[in-house]
């Protein structure tokens, strides 16, 4: 089974960008197939990976909702669980090297215990078929806390270059502790750093107790691509921001000569 990396952080810090560039690293390193999971209800990982434009995506939430309200009878001889798993599989978008699963909104009112149990089992096993899994989470770690995404080997908390961002990163770390999530390693990524990161800031980072895993420079090209709707994954190879993510990925996944 491959490594699982969950990316979390305050809104707008660059979670999706970091997740997409980690996925790019896996692809470039030949760690394929890679599974990309968008666990942010405000999903934009498909755009960052350039998958949204070419494919219509139904989310896991859509599939669960449809299954819960379906009046259809099961195909003859097929157990309910197998039929639901088959339906869930329809939410998996398969491309050449990257498969994408968009979680969508968590369930609404009503009893979804059965559905969530099957979903949990499905998502527990799914990463076994991939060299690496990268999960783009929202700040509340909703899916991690509901265990609808499985335990993770690495949790990367993204902060921007601000004390506010650092404070939010500490809260996410605390939340992960409170939820008693089974996480192998937690690391901090400071994103959008202009110039050289200051000693004062590094001192503040040290005080958080979250080990610094990497620093990503502010990259005007990322912003330019964003404005023009160019997927993050299409970033030129030799840009400093991708170089910085490669360094982080090597720490987590080993040196793959990318
Ligand atoms: N290193 C960087 N340099 C410059 N711009 C960046 C960098 N990283 C991310 N951005 C820009 O910051 C914005 C927010 O990035 P992104 O969407 O990845 O954040 P997010 O944390 O996933 O946001 P949300 O909470 O809305 O999901 C985007 O416009 C993105 O292009
Ligand atoms: Mg995002």
**Could you state the CATH homologous superfamily?**
P-loop containing nucleotide triphosphate hydrolases
Bound molecules: adenosine-5'-triphosphate, magnesium ion
Distance between the termini: 21 Å
Uncertain residue ranges: none
Count every helix, treating DSSP H or I runs of 4 or more residues as helices.
10
Architecture blueprint of SSEs:
Elements: E1 3-9, H1 15-28, E2 34-39, H2 45-48, H3 60-69, H4 80-89, E3 92-94, E4 98-102, H5 113-125, E5 132-137, H6 142-145, E6 152-160, H7 163-178, E7 183-193, H8 199-208, E8 212-217, H9 220-228, H10 240-253
Parallel strand pairs: 1-5, 1-6, 2-4, 2-5, 6-7, 7-8
Antiparallel strand pairs: 3-4
Adenosine-5'-triphosphate is lined by residues 9, 11-17, 40, 42, 44, 191-192, 216, 218-219, 222-223, 226, 241.
Structure report:
This protein is of the alpha/beta class. It has one domain (about 5-255): P-loop containing nucleotide triphosphate hydrolases (Rossmann fold, 3-Layer(aba) Sandwich), CATH 3.40.50.300. Helices cover about 40% and strands about 20% of the residues. The chain has ten helices and eight strands. α7 (about 165-180) links the parallel β6 and β7 (about 185-195). The chain is globular. The chain starts with a strand and ends in a 5-residue tail after the last helix. The mean pLDDT is about 90. Adenosine-5'-triphosphate binds near residues 12, 15, 17, 44 and 241.
């Amino acid at each position: 089974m491959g490594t699982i990396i969950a990316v979390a952080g305050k809104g707008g810090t660059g979670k999706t960008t970091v997740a997409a560039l980690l996925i790019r690293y896996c692809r470039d390193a030949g760690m394929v197939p890679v599974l990309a999971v968008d666990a942010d209800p405000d999903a934009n990982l498909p755009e960052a990976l350039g998958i949204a434009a070419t494919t219509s995506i139904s989310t896991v939430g859509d599939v669960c909702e449809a299954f819960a309200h379906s009046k259809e009878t099961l195909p003859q001889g097929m157990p309910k669980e197998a039929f639901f798993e088959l339906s869930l599989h329809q939410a998996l978008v398969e491309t050449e090297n990257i498969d994408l699963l968009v979680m969508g909104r968590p369930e609404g009112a009503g009893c979804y215990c059965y559905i969530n149990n099957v979903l949990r089992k499905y998502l527990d096993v799914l990463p076994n078929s991939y060299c690496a899994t990268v999960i783009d989470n929202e700040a509340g770690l909703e899916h991690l806390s509901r265990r609808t995404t499985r335990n993770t080997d690495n949790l990367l908390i993204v902060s921007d270059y601000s004390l506010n961002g650092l404070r939010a990163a500490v809260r996410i770390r605390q939340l992960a502790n409170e939820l008693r999530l089974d996480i192998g390693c937690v690391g901090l990524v400071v994103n959008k750093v202009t110039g050289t990161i200051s000693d004062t800031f590094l001192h503040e980072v040290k005080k958080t107790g979250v080990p610094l895993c990497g620093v990503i420079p502010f990259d005007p090209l990322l912003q330019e691509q964003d404005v023009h709707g160019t997927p993050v994954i299409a970033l030129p190879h030799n840009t400093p921001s991708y170089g910085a993510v490669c360094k982080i990925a090597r720490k987590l996944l080993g040196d793959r000569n990318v």
